[in-house]
Amino acid sequence: MNAIQTIQLTKKYKDLTAVERLDLEIQKGDLFSLLGVNGAGKTTTIKMLTCLTKPSDGDAIILGNSITKETAQVKKIIGVSPQETAVAPNLTVRENLELMCGVYGFPNEKKRAKVSELSEQFELTQILHKKAGKLSGGWQRRLSIAMALIGEPKILFLDEPTLGLDVIARSELWDTIRSLKGKITIILTTHYMEEAEELSDRIGIMKAGRLLAIGTAEELKEKAGTDKFEDAFVKIVKEEVK
Amino acid sequence: MRLLTFSGRTAKEILRDPLNLGFGLGFPLVLLILLSAIQANIPVSLFEIESLTPGITVFGLSFMTLFSATLIAKDRESALLQRLYTTPLTATDFIFGYVLPVLPIGMMQSVICYLAAMILGLPITITILYAIFFILPVALLFIAVGLLCGSVFNTKQVGGICGALFTNLAAWLSGIWFDLNLVGGVFKKIAYALPFVHAVELERAVFDGIWTNVFPHLFWVLGYGVAISGTAVMLFLRQMKRQ
Fold it and tell me: Less CB within 10 Å around the terminal CB: N or C of chain A?
């Protein structure tokens, strides 16, 4: 069953076409990565799918709900961790989690249970009392993802979750993302080849707003005739693969 | 529930910033004490506590403009708003969530100013309570300016525009520190075309218990308040759409 289906999804900004007639199907429970160089249209695609920006043309159906006509419904079933760390800096880790519980209208009992569950899952228990603005980049990202999961989303969008993190923080965040695989559908955008290859069930490669190729890492390597995924990516982006 | 949660967060962000507390409470209090000390040592009536205190409570609200504008601008830059825009929070939740919690903070600032003024010799009358109540429409006006600026400018611009320009405008064109008749001419006309002097005269009229003097000034404050609030809401919704 499809979790997401885009139908000729297009976004234009004056003369620039950021996303051009995107047709994409993402299976329920999959971890799908959108890969591409800067300006490929990954973030714009995510922004349209999360109802942050309206498509210029086309539509997308998220678990049966149109992103253009049923935005309120869509917002109830998605969770988003934006590219930049989106935490309230003067609030503690606990208060940030509670803020999201309140935003989703959870009663006190559920709020307590949810904060406890997610702080254990993301190993935040020891830092619950610390102000979010004082945490390292890696811990802020971890908190950011935990906040995105508060609303019990069926689809989680992770926009460049490991951007700017050191090797250890990235590896730890990969473990966190792996632990979510299969439980919910995850859409991840990234610049990092190894991240996409390591984590994804399927990968879509975008360039200049167009989807150039889609498949598993193995399928894409086979299609490009390369052993390494990075080489396959380069060949596909340079449009040397027909 | 959602609105309450977001309002709580706004209040915490503002109150936990030591600079906010320093400027919001400290600066008006320092002015009150300093000018009262000057008044005690000069033979003319320049900074009488009875007319100075209502003025300072209005001037102090210019910091509420700065606080709310800075918070909104920071949120816009930090992607926190982007995250929250993807949740079930509505535009109404955001607007009221930014405005409502600043109102009691502004009122509390007035209460503290009046308490300090009482220690400095302000006669204790029931009209102090009325003056604190009538600070509400004035506070709403100043907070609406904050919503407007925060929706349009970035953090750095907000610092310059609300932190320097607006506080100076509110100070010089309000008739708090000197009688505008002393300057007269275009300066006075400009001052009376803007809401600051009307806000101060409204507060002074309420404090003095001269109710006939309240209404022309109240209408000016309400008129500006409604116009600026309307524009601020429109600009906030525009930036929300642009996200």
Answer: C
